[in-house]
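Let us practice reading a record.
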Amino acid sequence: ELDDMHDALILWFGENYLSLDPEDVKERIVQDKHAEGIDAVLIDQRNYNLVFIQAKTVTTFENTRNNFSENDVKLALEGVRFLVKGDYKGKITPELENLIDEYHELDRTGDYKATVLFLTLKKEPVDNKYIEDFKKDFPKVVVNFYNFEWLFDFYVNKYLPMRADPPKRISFEVLTNLLTKDSPDRSRVFTCKGKELAKIYNDYREAIFQQNVRYSLGLRPKSINRQILETAVDNAKSVSFWYFNNGITIVCKTINESTSGKVINLDEAQIINGAQTTYALYEAYKNGNLKENVEVLIKAIESNDRNFIESVTLYTNSQNAIRLRDLCSKDEIQTKIQKILLDSYKYFYERARGEFDSLYPTSEAKEKLLDENYKSKIINNENAAQSFLALYLNKPAQAKSEKGRIFMKDTAGFYDDIFKRNDDIIPEKILMSWKLLKYIETQKKEYKKEYKIAEDLPEDKKYEIYKYDFLLHSEYFILNLFKDFLKDGKFNIDSEKTDLLDVIKKISNNDAKILEYYESIKNLLAEYIDDRRKKAGYYHNKFFKNEQSIALVRNFFNQKYAFIEVMPPIK
């Protein structure tokens, strides 16, 4: 989906190390060729961190031995200096200005720290004089280098284990065998030394965790429960660790006990609950502070039933480790949508993270199920729900900025409004809204190509491209407005299955009518945004994430297209 390996490196790092939403990272990669030495401006809202990135890839492996250019360091730091302190308005491209406007608004709150991050597949520069000079003027701004060696270590010791198969066998010395249960699923509950668990993590890292738990906690060891760690290293409290801690739950393919009963071997074992405890014990062990008398309760369950294992994972992690999307994956409505979309339309509706790759691990299996274009036929149910939320429920801003509420089933969530059990054509609605979103995203990708060459054009031609830069942020708003154009075109997308299928067919065939609707929406939205951006404090990220904005846009559109339904302002 990205233009080059350079952008892919930023996205990979943002998603896998900073744990940011990849869609958000993509929007924050600067498309301009001369962007003051800045390649991305990322917002880490969980850690209140504003991150300027300059990234450098290499063309050959031998180039990883080269040093990062000191001139590039100077260029990036001078760029940050200008953007943070300088009068940048009107002097940089509109997309970079949009990102820097957001930076300043967040920085003024006093809650955020700033970081300049050099992400490189090379070595660090020979001289750090430019960094030292910058730090004198900006002592509170963190400057970090993530060079080839660091990235390689992260890749080997964190990224790959996240995707690795579980270890063939792990062993525990049993201190106390508390419970033996052989039906309906064989299990053993026992006590082991905390040091044994720490050593197992030291040997296998994230491979010891079940995939769901890996994605939830595997990359953020600093988020461990400090009280667990403090108990494990405290002279007085460590003896009570077993009583204070809930223990570890492990699923495995086979439980093998020694004749003496003093050793338990677990084949293809995965920890499905207890990641924080494991990290805490490892941290203490690594630092040489883990007390010998620390003991841990282990519950081991033998099962090859994938559904059963997922259920145990979900129920034992209901507090924080598993995403709501995964908790909802077994709902009847999710299963129904998946079956209908696959059986009737040859699209795979992915109910949980990694489901498609897990069920169909090879390219041959994927192509057999969906055909050689299978990548375009995998529907992420979170992304599909976002499209439905924007199109049918008039919540494009929430679709963009509040997708964490999609799988919430209480009054604060959107789940029951999206996945209505009594709507017989919900699979077709999901498919149509998702297909339309993908169409709009394709148009956005084409616009990016024009935007990247605009800097070298004459001012009048440059403006004709730059005035559409909102397209990099507005896909859910465009999707929402499409609904009215389709209805005006006599497509009953609320209750007629045949009309929904007709729209789906037109989207797949790049029908001229769909393009006509898109162009009408794009051009009138450009007119509205052109006026709106003149107001103080406007920037795209804020506007298209504000739930009040769609009412303003719809009311403006209604002045030209009477069929656009107006919305009362949200109080």
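A brief commentary: The longest strand covers residues 49-56.
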